[in-house]
Amino acid sequence: MKNLRKAFPALRQYVYLNTASCGLMSEKVFEYRQDHDLDLLIAGSIFRDKHGEVLEKVRETAGDFFSCAPNRVGLIHNFSSGFNTLLSGINSSSRILLLKEDYPSINWAVNSREFDVCYAKIDDKLEQNIEEALSENKPDLFCFSIVQYENGIKLSISFLKEMKEKFPDTLFVADGTQFLGTEKFDFDASKIDVVIASCYKWMNAGYGNAVMLFQEDVPKKIDPKSCGFNSLQGKYKAHEGNFLGKFEPGHQDSLNFGSIMAAIKLINSVGISLIEERIKLLSQKAKEEFKKLGLLEDAVVNRAQHSSIFNIGGDAKLLQFLNDKNIICSLKEPGVRVSFHYYNTEEEIDLLVTALKEYFQK
């Protein structure tokens, strides 16, 4: 475990329980970024001319990691840019199912347009609520987060696959920002139509990069209007009207996208199965400890499976108390949010629990 933590220098000074807000940068990603800018510094356009090869390798590396053909891997700068481009290609008369109080970058983007919107409630019966909403409303799209950012409630990939098979006419569009990097994910097998995810959290790839994965028939159903010179540049965007190119119209940043490749190489060296196992272990221990303290909402307590993100209540005073002890977390209404990645330890959960007992017994 100590060897896994060495790659992340921030862990030497903090009990870092805030990956749901910002994943730590590893030394490997930092080294890639340094080498990249040094090459740009000393070679200028000679280095720039190799960008195409770098981006091809990134696309292929990400495609292999997520089990998605590289010509269906979009390299975008963040979830919102990809999602808004996608929505621009949807007929305004479409009906879209959302999760009530889901991540604002999903719900705000949909509600800012003229779509017919319906909702499913997020609670301990989330799966039942979704199935009933899909059956009753028959939406053209279902847009949702795989993992909820406020309290960590998680939809299983097997459930989503089951729903897609039961409602094949509905386009399933998922935000995977709080999911990718936490467990092995076979995109093609999932049957989800589109997954878009920023990679600065659980992928630990730094800011300014995201991936978009889409199934082969999606271009027949969505027609974004964006276009630029880069839309037709590269091995995987060679023909006019290329769907992938509509999400990549301008110059692409090989610094940020190359960071995805560096991050995936680190994940592969650790092993995604080990990462998944570690996260589940930490999640189970944290949930049990928080339950004993009565800190979790019923919607979390009553669910059999959960992510490693928890909202433990409290307010800005609790956040400051924890920060003063070098325990780093976030304030997310209705309380303080903590999150555990594979580089965290059971001992750090114990330190957090001890601090919480001290705070609540004051």
Automatic annotation (TrEMBL):
Q: Name the UniProt key words of this record, in alphabetical order.
A: Lyase, Pyridoxal phosphate
Respond yes or no to whether keyword Chloroplast is given for this record. no
Q: Name one GO molecular function term.
A: lyase activity
Recorded hits in Pfam families, A to Z, give:
Aminotran_5
Q: Answer yes or no on keyword Calcium.
A: no
Aminotransferase class V domain ranges (all copies) = 52-352
Q: What highest taxon heads this organism's lineage? A: Bacteria
Question: Which InterPro entries does this entry report, sorted A to Z?
Answer: Aminotrans_V_dom (IPR000192), PyrdxlP-dep_Trfase (IPR015424), PyrdxlP-dep_Trfase_major (IPR015421), PyrdxlP-dep_Trfase_small (IPR015422)
What protein am I looking at? Selenocysteine lyase/cysteine desulfurase
